[in-house]
Amino acid sequence: MDAPGLVCGIPGNHVRLAVQVSGAIGATDDTIESGAAIMAVCELCGKKPMFGHNVSHSNRKTNRKFKPNVQRVTVFLDGVPKRLRICTRCLRTLYKTARTS
Asked: How far apart are the first and last CA of the chain?
């Protein structure tokens, strides 16, 4: 679903950027529609927490979770402001796309 005029307000930066997005906005629509929005899920790319191990010096492995760096950003979709949780990789891509256009 392409957004014709996506404008992104980046925190700490008082410039609003007009960006064309070719990704799927709302990749986690099933969790948003159910009313239980998951905190550590990017709403643009769908990046979720991953699991792995902490490895100690004695090579003992304990479970751990790698969470994506998700930020709350105000995005204007068709002139309507909407708060989205976007990972910093998508936020960086939006910012770079807006600077080049």
From this structure: 20
Nearest to 71, CA basis, from 86, 93, 92:
86
| pLDDT band for position 37 (cuts 50, 70, 90) | low
Helix residue ranges per DSSP H, the chain: 29-33, 88-100
User: Going by C-beta distance under 8 Å and a sequence separation of 6 or more, which residues neighbour residue 59?
Assistant: none
Give residue 31's Cα distance to chain centre. Answer: 15
Least confident stretch, 11-15, 19-23, 33-37, 45-49 = 11-15
Joined together, the tokens standing for residue 66 give 């790698």
Per the model's pLDDT, the better-predicted residue between 81 and 5 turns out to be 81
Is 64 strand, coil or helix? strand
User: Any idea which residue has 């479970």 for tokens?
Assistant: 63
**Amino acid identity for residue 66 in this structure:** F
